[in-house]
Design goal:
It contains 10 helices and no strands. By secondary structure, it is mainly alpha-helical.
């Protein structure tokens, strides 16, 4: 699994904007391509340790079996809360620790990180439509960060991508599980058809809006880089 370096300058700027009350944590988390929980940990880490908290840190870090078990046992002993443990040991996301705790409580083996079992080769699992919608919404709000979405929900990267594309094309109906179904679905009423069409239109407009924001952001970054190069001359 590839690792994405943390852009410390971007995080510091986001934290300063948040401290000044210029933007909400949720909006800044979206811009950075992380979950709101992760951004809240960064706020706490920065408040306690300063910019050094981000030194040599990477998202999607690998953790040993011993490290995971020690973190889980510390939480179960009541010594520290989950946020405190994540902050103390530099665990990149709250969902990771929560997943280790669940596996430990279920009696499942906690293993060392194996790159062959990463997000791209992870085995698929059965996902109900309600969770698919939650996953798709998260992916959209994170500006199509498929990798972050796959990590947060413990599903393969390919599944996230397929669900987003199906939802983009057919709306909520595109997320129906049609495996093993041979009988045609009963015809929809005019009201149901109208609702589906309105939902599909709304989703397409949302996709267009987000894609436009991404394009504008890209242009802003490119312009900023041009100005920075000019200032250095």
């Amino acid at each position: 699994m590839s690792k994405r370096k943390i852009d410390v300058k971007a995080i510091k700027l986001a934290i300063e904007q948040h401290s000044a009350g210029l933007e909400s944590g949720a909006m800044l988390a979206q811009k950075l391509g992380v979950s709101k929980t992760t951004f809240s940990y960064w706020l706490r880490g920065y408040a306690k340790y300063g910019i050094e908290y981000f030194s040599n840190k990477e998202t999607n870090s690998s953790y040993t079996k011993e490290f995971k078990i020690n973190a889980v046992k510390e939480y179960l002993s009541g010594i520290s809360t989950q946020p405190e443990i994540c902050l103390k040991y530099g665990i990149s996301t709250h969902s990771l620790l929560k997943r280790w705790i669940t596996r430990y409580n279920d009696g499942k083996e906690i293993k060392d990180y194996d790159p062959k079992q990463g997000l791209y080769l992870m085995k698929s699992r059965k996902v109900l439509k309600a969770e698919k919608l939650e996953i798709v919404d998260f992916c959209i709000k994170s500006r199509y960060n498929y990798k972050l979405t796959a990590e947060n929900f413990t599903v393969p990267y390919s599944q996230v991508y397929q669900w987003v594309q199906k939802h983009k094309k057919d709306g909520c109906a595109g997320l129906d599980d049609r495996r093993g179904r041979h009988k045609a679905a009963p015809p929809l009423s005019e009201l149901e058809q109208l609702r589906n069409e309105l939902e599909l239109t709304r989703r397409k407009l949302e996709y267009a809006r987000i894609e436009n924001e991404i394009l504008k952001k890209k242009e802003e970054i490119e312009l900023r880089q041009i100005f920075q190069r000019q200032d250095k001359r």
